[in-house]
TrEMBL record:
Function: Subunit of the oligosaccharyl transferase (OST) complex that catalyzes the initial transfer of a defined glycan (Glc(3)Man(9)GlcNAc(2) in eukaryotes) from the lipid carrier dolichol-pyrophosphate to an asparagine residue within an Asn-X-Ser/Thr consensus motif in nascent polypeptide chains, the first step in protein N-glycosylation. N-glycosylation occurs cotranslationally and the complex associates with the Sec61 complex at the channel-forming translocon complex that mediates protein translocation across the endoplasmic reticulum (ER). All subunits are required for a maximal enzyme activity.
Annotated GO CC locations: oligosaccharyltransferase complex
Gene Ontology terms describing biological process: protein N-linked glycosylation via asparagine
The entry's keywords: Endoplasmic reticulum, Membrane, Signal, Transmembrane, Transmembrane helix
Top-rank taxon, per record: Eukaryota
Higher taxonomy: Eukaryota, Viridiplantae, Streptophyta, Embryophyta, Tracheophyta
PANTHER family found in the cross-reference section: DOLICHYL-DIPHOSPHOOLIGOSACCHARIDE--PROTEIN GLYCOSYLTRANSFERASE SUBUNIT 1, RIBOPHORIN I
UniProt name for this protein: Dolichyl-diphosphooligosaccharide--protein glycosyltransferase subunit 1
Annotated metabolic or biological route of this protein: Protein modification; protein glycosylation
Keyword ATP-binding: no
Record family assignment: Belongs to the OST1 family.
Length: 330
């Protein structure tokens, strides 16, 4: 895990290096970021109000991420609408770009507008990003009786190639205790929400490191390997078999596992383990079967939700700590 000092040093260098590369044609009037840390997958919704302060139309908006974050970026989507008042947004094409004259420590994406943004016009841009393997267990090893603590590292400032007039950051935590968090003058922790800002007149590529150390006992199920086999018969039937190699991606188990303690006090002696998996299947799926290599499945349930999607609920005899298992679902 990168230390806070390493992150701060790296990004202070980036701020100086990118100062001359900032794009002066666009100005972010307001940036509001909402970070969801309630599971092991980090979801960030960034709402931007962008104004063309230059003299020429602009057809693309650049989005910047440090490489240490971009390597864990699983998905990114952008939605935009033009006008002083935010209306119905449309999906914008987005791609990785390499602007000229910039160091390699940042990864850039470009959101292409459906029509160029004219001088003085305003664009409302929402960017949804999803990160995996972003939260780091700390400590990396815990006993069966311990709660799982993780570390989240980011910036209280939105990393933007454009100047930002006003910005805020809101971090939603899963509940439980918060060991520590970076405090600045306008930092507030209310219940399970940590707020930074507002910040005004922030220059391009500004980075203000923050670290949040908190309890997160949500399932850290990770499919280390997935193999899909699709068989199409002459009669039109389609059989799909999925082979999962599932591991616990959280803190490693230190010491021995006591099945007796777990069964007698499961929420005190195994709070950070996960006890079941949920598979979302097409509504027309039938003849469903499953098995695992270590015989650890106890019960299952199959039902439809409000969207007519079949949900397969698989329970385990023994909780999943950081050890390997495999579950096959068809």
């Amino acid at each position: 895990m990168a230390t806070p000092l390493r992150l701060a040093a790296l990004l202070l260098v980036l701020v100086a290096a990118f100062a001359s590369a900032a794009r002066a044609d666009l100005v972010v009037s307001r940036a509001d970021r909402k970070v969801d840390l309630t599971s092991h997958i980090v979801r960030v919704l960034t709402s931007l109000k962008v104004e063309n302060a230059g003299s020429e139309p602009v057809s693309k908006v650049l989005l910047a991420f440090p490489n240490i974050q971009a390597k864990n970026l699983a998905a990114i989507r952008a939605f935009g609408t033009e006008g002083k008042v935010k209306g119905l947004s449309s999906v914008l094409p987005i791609e990785v770009v390499e602007p000229s004259g910039v160091p390699p420590e940042l990864t850039f994406f470009s959101a292409s507008l459906h029509k160029p943004l004219q001088k003085g016009k305003i664009l409302h841009l929402d960017v949804l990003t999803v990160f995996t393997h972003f939260l780091q267990p700390f400590p990396e090893e815990i006993t069966q009786a311990d709660s799982q603590l993780v570390v989240f590292q980011d910036s209280s400032h939105y990393l933007s190639p454009y100047p930002v007039k006003v910005q805020t950051l809101s971090i939603r935590l899963p509940g439980g205790r918060v060991e520590s968090y970076t405090k600045y003058g306008n930092t507030k922790l209310v219940d399970s929400e940590l707020k930074y800002g507002p910040y005004e007149d922030v220059p391009p590529f500004s980075y203000n490191p923050i670290i949040v150390h908190f309890e997160n006992n949500n399932p850290f199920a990770v499919a280390k390997e997935l193999i899909r086999e699709i068989e199409i018969s002459h009669w039109g039937n389609v059989q799909i078999t999925e082979h999962y190699n599932i591991v616990h991606g959280g803190a490693r188990l230190k010491g021995e596992f006591s099945r007796l303690d777990y069964q007698s006090r499961p929420y005190a002696r195994g709070v950070s383990s996960f006890r079941h998996l949920i598979a979302r299947l097409p509504a027309r799926a039938h003849s469903i079967y499953y098995r695992d290599e270590i015989g650890n499945i106890s019960t299952s349930h199959l039902w439809s939700d409000s969207k007519k999607v079949l949900l397969l609920f698989i329970s385990f005899v023994m909780a999943k700590f950081p050890n390997k298992s495999a579950t096959h679902v068809c």
